[in-house]
Design a protein that fits this description.
10 helices, single chain, Rossmann fold, alpha/beta, four-stranded antiparallel β-sheet
Length: about 250
């Protein structure tokens, strides 16, 4: 497996009204690993994800994806290139079924056209069957196959989090950005998801994880970056980073 980074940020900066939200940040996320990005509230972590996904535009620096400068690409182009994300605030079609929500992630990979699907041509039926089989496999992996036909909006917060992650994985990403994926979950639920994320990473996907749950971060991440006020203040192995006095003062407040 290649160790060249799937994602590389090189001196990335973002200002809002002259105030720096992200200030000269450099980091990398190699394939097959889970890389953590942590920091106190207001450290610019979600802004970093929005910059990577093209939702916000850089003030300075550049973003490389598989060695290519993608700093100016739009979000839709980046998704087609192989980036996917989850959100702090869950965004599902609440009236749709669990299966429908997961299937929506495959739209980027649809090869048959409108008329083929409308007329039910064999090529369209075959593609739909393949997507349903892949969605079913995701439901099995996340322990939600028995809820496939339930409306997403009627399920628990933890289940809705899982649906969002399955939808992101249905996009078959090379880079998966997770924004506080275990927020509101207990240790058992978080541990179960951590195991799934590790399996996803082992398949070659690069994962960049933003998370406040330090126990979870130390369990799943191989490398951490710590930001405060938009600046990188530490990086390295989780245990070493969390023992750094600078991190303790800035992030833990003691």
């Amino acid at each position: 497996m290649s160790t060249a980074p799937t994602l590389q940020l090189d001196g990335v900066g973002k200002r809002f009204g002259g105030l720096p939200a992200v200030d000269g940040l450099s980091l990398s996320a190699p394939p097959g690993t889970i890389t953590g990005l942590i920091g106190p509230n207001g450290a610019g972590k979600t802004t970093v994800i929005n910059l990577i996904m093209g939702i916000l535009k850089l003030t300075s620096g550049r973003i490389l994806f598989n060695g290519k400068d993608v700093s100016t690409l739009e979000a839709a182009d980046l998704a087609r290139a192989g980036m996917a994300r989850t959100f702090q605030n869950i965004r599902l079609v609440t009236e749709g079924t669990v299966l429908d929500n997961v299937l929506s992630g495959f739209h980027l990979h649809q090869r048959t056209g409108f008329w083929a699907n409308l007329l039910g041509l064999p090529s369209a039926r075959a593609e739909q069957a393949a997507h349903r089989a892949e969605a079913q496999a995701l439901l099995e992996r996340f322990g939600m196959a028995h809820l496939a036909e339930h409306r997403a909006g009627t399920l628990s917060y933890g289940h809705q989090r899982r649906i969002e992650m399955m939808r992101a994985l249905a996009m078959r990403p090379q880079l998966l950005l997770l924004d506080e994926p275990v927020a509101g979950m207990n240790d058992t639920e978080a541990s179960e998801l951590g195991h799934i994320f590790s399996q996803v990473a082992a398949s070659g996907v690069a994962i960049l994880l933003v998370e406040h749950n330090m126990r979870f971060v130390t369990q799943v991440c191989s490398h951490l970056y710590v930001t405060a006020s938009g600046r990188l203040i530490a990086q390295g192995a989780p245990d070493a980073v969390l023992a750094d006095p600078v991190v303790i003062e800035a992030y833990l407040g003691s």
